Amino acid sequence: SSSSSSSRRRRRRASFSNDIRRSAAVASAGGDDAPGEVVDLDDLDFDLDDLMPDTIMGDLEDLQEELGAEFDDDGVPLNYGDAALEARAMRERCGVVDRTGAWKLLRLGGPNAIDALIASGAAAKDVDALKTLAPGQGAAVSFDRGDGSRAMCHVQDGGVLIIAPTSVATTLLAAAGPDAAMDLAEQCVLLSILGPKASDMLSDVGIVGVLGMPPGTHAVFGYDDRPVVAAHGTELGGEVARTHGVANLVVDEGVAGMVWNVIVRKGAEPCGSQALAEVTKS
């Protein structure tokens, strides 16, 4: 209904910082760009424009609603009518989940980034491993919070892109301070793709090799002069995630609906947070 729709979050249109948009670390599978090499978005060959019919437009939340999404109070899609069928889709085929709101997107930069991770309870061994990585690489970092919290940390030129549970993200933001931390929650959407057919589906849309590369590997492609970061995540539990990996897409909010449409048209089945919780049980 209109009243329930108005009570949900409405993401504002914004773009990545120029540092992320213009100088994103790319780790590609094959081709001339080695992991860690900085690639300008204008030099990338792949463009979602080639896959998007002109007639498909729309706000992401509106598109999800048209597919029957039931939302929680924060606007996170709970299900699309049958959480059990959605869980089966992720176990047997390929599902796409909008995790925006349930998880946070941050960027830490400057000399205080590592100190902020440590102050927030990041495991020392994970932080030490993170410090050895080059741009285009990444790793999962565990946090000593008593709940098994993990975040994906993707090393970029001059900073770290972090996908973290809300509780961890809040602590990180406070520890880093406004000069070192950027909250991307109002600028970007987090779409996660998982299932045995996920790698094939991503290849069909031109995102080749992300799930075939080491965890933490991330690459960048563009749509309408906006960046989409595709990353291999290991922050989720469950057999599906452990066996097939998780592809996380960090999408500029302005093109999130269009990217969603490409993914769904290529075979990913819309799934809600209820099905994801079931599939990712440890």
CATH superfamily of the largest domain: Probable tRNA modification gtpase trme, domain 1
Overall pLDDT score: 81
- Which strands sit side by side, in order, in the main sheet? 12-13-14-11-5-15
Total domain modules: 2
What is the overall shape? Answer: globular
What is the CATH architecture term of the largest domain? 2-Layer Sandwich
Largest sheet: 6 strands, mixed
Highest-level CATH class of the largest domain? Alpha Beta
Give the SSE string: HHEEHEEHEEHHEEEHEEHEEHEHEH
The number of strands is 15
Radius of gyration: 18 Å
SS element count, helices: 11
Q: Helix coverage percent of residues?
A: 25-40%
Which structural category do the helix and sheet elements fall into? alpha+beta
β-strand percent reads 25-35%
N-end to C-end Cα span = 36 Å
Low-confidence runs = 1-57
CATH topology of the largest domain: Gyrase A, domain 2
